[in-house]
Amino acid sequence: MKSSVSPSLRALLEGIVDYAGLFPPAGLALEQALENHAAYMRGEDAWMLGRFVLPTGKMGEASPLLAGRFDSAHPLRVSALGSKPSSVAGFLDNLRASLSELTRFAQEHGEAVVVNQFEAPLPPVDADGVPSLLRQAKELIDRTIPWPLQTFWEVPFGEGLPATLRGFDGHIAEVVRARGGLFFGIKLRTGGLEAAAFPTPGQLADAPLAAGAAGAALKFTAGLHHPIRRFGAHLGTHTHGFLNAFAAGALANEHRLHSEETRAILEDERPENFRFDAEGFTWCDRRVPTDALAAHRLFVTSFGSCSFNEPRGDLRRLGMLA
After folding, report:
1. What residue segments make up the domains of the chain, in order of their start?
2. What are phi and psi of 35, to 5 degrees?
3. What is the pLDDT of residue 2?
4. Which residue has the higher pLDDT, 179 or 297?
5. What is the DSSP secondary structure assignment for residue 160, as one 8-state letter?
6. Is CATH 3.20.20 what the domain over 7-317 is classified as, yes or no?
């Protein structure tokens, strides 16, 4: 039995969950996480499933676990995760090692594996240093990877976020320009295991338009297990909803919203305000046509989650999936 889903909800959430079962709070063993992913991609909600988040340092361990789970008909689509650097030099060394490992992994498994996304934290660097750093990363990727590789660079939240995002702006044609589908994006952490890991709605509100203005895609990670913003008693803080975040991204770019209105979408805890039908998605009196949602998803792409069951289970409880 296939799940029943509104065309506009599907357009907003297609491939939205990059499964990160290896990471807290799930913290699964690699074999179990791969087994889960193989089952999810054959299940009724596979349309919501994106890539498997796999650290490049675990690719050797993963290799013998793929047979019988993934093949050319059901390939393992990977977002390769690089390690956290402490310096610019360390960043480039880590990137060089990661690119070498993901190339070996992809070539070893042929059509059973697709590695077309890479994500890693940027080292400590001020906004003025971002263009040079990205230029060096792009040159290294161009020399190493013979296929299109989408990349997401994690930047910290804080008062300096708009300035860091502007480090991408104005340099896109030179530094971030597409090469057969290769482009640079921004990864933002939207939660964690403690209250301090969650950015405020005000911090998050600036991100969709700033990224769109820079011509860079956004990816979120952590904290988005549930569709609608809610208070997490175990954390002592509100947690962001993935419907809030992706609706805010689509509406902000569709209507060029100011940050105060984008913040109102992020802060909304009322599921009834998020309405989906065949023709489009509506939040309060703001609407995005279904055929425009796919274009907005080019700028707000996916979120990493250690659970695939919680996001889809909550959508069912809200009556958005049947």
Report:
1. 7-317
2. -60, -45
3. 55
4. 297
5. T
6. yes
